[in-house]
């Protein structure tokens, strides 16, 4: 597919299609509003491809949750569930489970069964709960506990709350830097860079070729890393004006405020993605873009190829539904 595609397609609803993705084990998951595709390189160096429609959950079918400043939390939970599914699929590929040999010169395709390529709802839910609990401990309890040690020095509540925010960002940077030293994680970060290069190629209205993708930056404002950084920065200002009750009350207070902060951050990230070439956008979202130097690495040609295959697949699926129009 070497022709050009309009990256934001006007839909009958008046909305625009946005493409994004996630790095997985030796591969990339790409998604559009209605489809997702996972492309992975198997141990035999074949490209394994799986694509499916995105099935809306009960929460996802609630229209009131799709409104601005509410849809951020919904998008985050949805991304977590789909991300876990993509990660398990990529792990299964590396174990060469249920793989069907493809004709020579074509991408192999996994034929999933109910045990390997699909995720049981309990497993997805359990992983999400663990991630949320771990995140609350690392980014809420730990910074609060550390800052509480300074109460004896008679720090003001506002100063302690601001210190909490600074500690959260510091812990996040240290955490990502440490895991980024692991060889396997470095490869995931390379695929993360490949995902961004592929999406940037599409959004530049260029043909989805290796040559064009290699010229793109590995940074993108509409990235999960930027989202986290924006949430952490906004939380500094929000929590600095909130009271500082005992820690057992502060944890629920943070959980109540977090969806609101995530909603604002999500809208900001969406806006940044639409105007990512503007100087003011680059300046305003510089912390998020800079943080991506920690979570992305320059990909190899074969990694970019995997990302392009996944992205082409979801674009073609959208075109097939006659709700996206190819540009000649």
How many structural domains does the protein architecture include? 1
Overall 3D shape:
globular
Percent strand equals 5-15%
Distance between the termini: 12 Å
Helix content: 55-70%
Number of separate strands: 8
Structural class assignment: alpha+beta
Question: What is the H/E order?
Answer: EEEEEHEEHHHHHHHHHE
Please count the helical segments.
10
Q: How does the major sheet shape up?
A: 4 strands, antiparallel
Radius of gyration: 21 Å
Stretches where pLDDT is under 50 for at least 5 consecutive residues are 1-15, 110-121, 324-328
Average of per-residue pLDDT values: 79
For the biggest β-sheet, the strand order reads: 2-3-4-5
Summarize the structure.
This protein is 55% helix and 10% strand.
Show the helix and strand layout:
Blueprint: E1 4-5, E2 20-24, E3 27-31, E4 35-41, E5 47-53, H1 71-94, E6 99-100, E7 109-110, H2 121-148, H3 157-179, H4 183-203, H5 210-214, H6 224-240, H7 247-274, H8 279-284, H9 286-295, H10 301-320, E8 326-327
Antiparallel strand pairs: 1-8, 2-3, 3-4, 4-5, 6-7
Helix pairs in contact: 1-2, 1-7, 2-3, 2-7, 3-6, 4-10, 6-7, 6-9
Tell me what the structure shows.
This protein has one domain (4-321). It is built from ten helices and eight strands. It has a four-stranded antiparallel sheet with strand order 2-3-4-5. The chain has a two-stranded antiparallel sheet with strand order 1-8. The chain has a two-stranded antiparallel ribbon with strand order 6-7. The protein is α+β, with helices and mostly antiparallel strands and 328 residues long. The protein is 55% helix and 10% strand.
């Amino acid at each position: 597919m070497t022709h050009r595609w309009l990256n934001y397609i006007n839909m009958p609803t008046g909305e625009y299609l946005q493409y994004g993705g996630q790095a997985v084990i030796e591969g990339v998951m790409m998604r559009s509003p209605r489809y997702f595709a996972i492309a992975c390189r198997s141990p035999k160096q074949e490209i394994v491809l799986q694509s499916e429609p995105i099935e809306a959950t009960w929460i996802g079918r609630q229209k009131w949750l799709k409104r601005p400043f509410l849809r951020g939390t919904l998008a985050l939970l949805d991304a977590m569930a789909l991300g876990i599914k993509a990660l398990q699929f990529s792990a299964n590929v590396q174990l060469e489970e249920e793989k069907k040999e493809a004709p020579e010169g074509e991408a192999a395709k996994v034929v999933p069964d109910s045990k390997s390529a699909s995720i049981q709802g309990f497993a997805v839910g359990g992983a999400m709960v663990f991630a949320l609990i771990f995140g609350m401990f690392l980014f809420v309890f730990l910074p609060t506990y550390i800052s509480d040690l300074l109460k004896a020095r008679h720090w003001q509540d506002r100063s302690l709350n601001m210190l909490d925010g600074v500690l959260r960002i510091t812990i996040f940077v240290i955490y990502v830097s440490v895991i980024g030293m692991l060889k396997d994680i470095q490869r995931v970060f390379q695929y993360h860079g490949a995902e961004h290069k592929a999406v940037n190629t599409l959004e530049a209205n260029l043909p989805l070729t290796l040559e064009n993708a290699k010229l793109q930056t590995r940074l993108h404002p509409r990235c999960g890393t930027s989202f986290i950084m924006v949430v952490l920065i906004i939380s500094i200002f929000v929590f600095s004006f909130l009271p500082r009750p005992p820690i057992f009350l502060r944890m629920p207070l943070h959980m109540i405020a977090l969806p609101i902060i995530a909603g604002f951050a999500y809208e900001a990230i969406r806006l940044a993605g639409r105007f990512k070439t503007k100087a003011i956008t680059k300046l305003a979202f510089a912390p998020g873009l800079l943080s991506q130097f920690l979570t992305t690495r320059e990909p190899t040609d074969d990694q970019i190829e995997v990302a392009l295959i996944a992205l082409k697949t979801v674009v073609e699926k959208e075109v097939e539904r006659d709700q996206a129009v190819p540009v000649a």
